[in-house]
Amino acid sequence: MEIPDFSSMKLDSRPELIDFEGVSMTRYFTDNWEKVKNFQARPDDILIATYPKAGTTWVSYILDLLYFGNESPERQTSQPIYMRVPFLEMCFQGLPLGTELADTLPTSPRPIKTHLPVQLVPKSFWEQNSKVVYVARNAKDNAVSYFHFDRMNMGQPEPGDWNTFLQKFMDGRNVFGPWYDHVNGYWKKKQTYSNILYMFYEDMVEDTGREVARLCSFLGLSTSATERERITKGVQFDVMKQNKMTNYSTLPVMDFKISPFMRKGKVGDWRNHFTVAQNEQFDEVYKQKMKNTTVKFRTEI
Ligand SMILES: Nc1ncnc2c1ncn2[C@@H]1O[C@H](COP(=O)(O)OS(=O)(=O)O)[C@@H](OP(=O)(O)O)[C@H]1O
Q1: CA of residue 52 to ligand 1 center, whole Å
Q2: Which residue among 150, 247, 262 is best mutated to probe the pocket of ligand 1, counting the most ligand atoms within 8 A of its Cβ?
Q3: Whose CA is nearest to atom 8 of ligand 1?
């Protein structure tokens, strides 16, 4: 199988931020809304839900290897991860629609990616009791990663300078809305919907093997310890960064000269970006926005 050629994918200009059902979005994630809203999930679908830049690609790749690594190894060299794990709401000129990719995915189960906040997830996922793997990342590193992503990705709104972006992040004026509502929304959902595994990026960095084992247990997979070890090695940052199928280098709308998709993969990189004043302001806003939640993030590991 040939690697798909997306060199014709071009964006004339960066998209504007729009208000969509109370959430900041761009048309690239809302233009296909009727089909997204009415998407028919299946009971064995696995929805990988994240706020952008929280570790989506990492978990997507782990899931793909767990289910299909041995069964169809050719997938690993012929299909970029974003084709194997469709991005449900994606609607870019020159790329297949996320809903179409998902509908035509030949695999079972179907791993499907979304950044939608919990209230916008198509209701069929809940009705079908599909499994949901949510990955959350601490707000400060998430903001830094998102800033660099917006700089290099012509499919995202212009981020401005770091200070401008950080103010927008604290106000929730990013694509897919406020980080705070996103992480809290899925955390709350977990209290009434038991088929969610809530994972943390920091835990994955600390001990990837342990988190792969947690995933297997949630998914009901009896993957051997040797196999899990092999997968754990294959999904390390440096390995994924070199792998064309997982590093997004096949998408022409991203300018790696500005910043690579696989940028640093670290916990605590925010310290290289936040000034003391920005950090104090951020902590104040964080305390306010997170005062009614029990979800706890670790920033020191
Ligand atoms: N294997 C591994 N180990 C550690 N970190 C990893 C790994 N794979 C991806 N990443 C880091 O995750 C960030 C990208 O997040 P997403 O995949 O969620 O991006 S996206 O929302 O799908 O565009 C981005 O974070 P930053 O490096 O901090 O920018 C990636 O480098």
Answers
A1: 9
A2: 262
A3: 58
- CA nearest 41: which of 133, 110, 115, 114? 110
The closest of 130, 141, 136, 94 to 117, measured between CA atoms, is 136
Question: Which of 28, 58, 270, when mutated, tests ligand 1's pocket best, judged by the most ligand atoms within 8 Å of its CB?
Answer: 58
Q: What letter does residue 3 receive in the DSSP assignment?
A: P
By CB neighbour count within 10 A (0-12 exposed, 13-18 middle, 19+ buried), where does 13 fall? exposed
Q: Which domains does the chain have, with CATH numbers?
A: 18-138+176-252 (3.40.50.300)
Enumerate residue ranges in the chain where pLDDT < 70: 1-4, 8, 299-301
User: In whole angstroms, how far apart are CA 169 and each of 178, 200, 210, 213, 277?
Assistant: 7, 20, 31, 33, 16
pLDDT at residue 251, rounded to an integer: 87
Backbone Cα Rg of the chain: 18
The answer to whether the beta carbons of residues 155 and 253 sit under 8 Å apart is: yes
For residue 60, the Cα-to-chain-centroid distance in whole angstroms is 8
Residue 287's identity, in one-letter code, is K
Q: What is the pLDDT of residue 300?
A: 60
Q: What is the pTM of this model?
A: 0.97
Q: Which positions ≥6 away from 234 have C-beta within 8 Å?
A: 65
User: What whole-number distance in Å separates Cα of residue 107 and Cα of residue 215?
Assistant: 19
Classify the phi-psi angles of 248: left when phi > 0, otherwise alpha if psi is within -120 to 50, otherwise beta.
Answer: left
Task: Please list the active-site residues.
Answer: 115
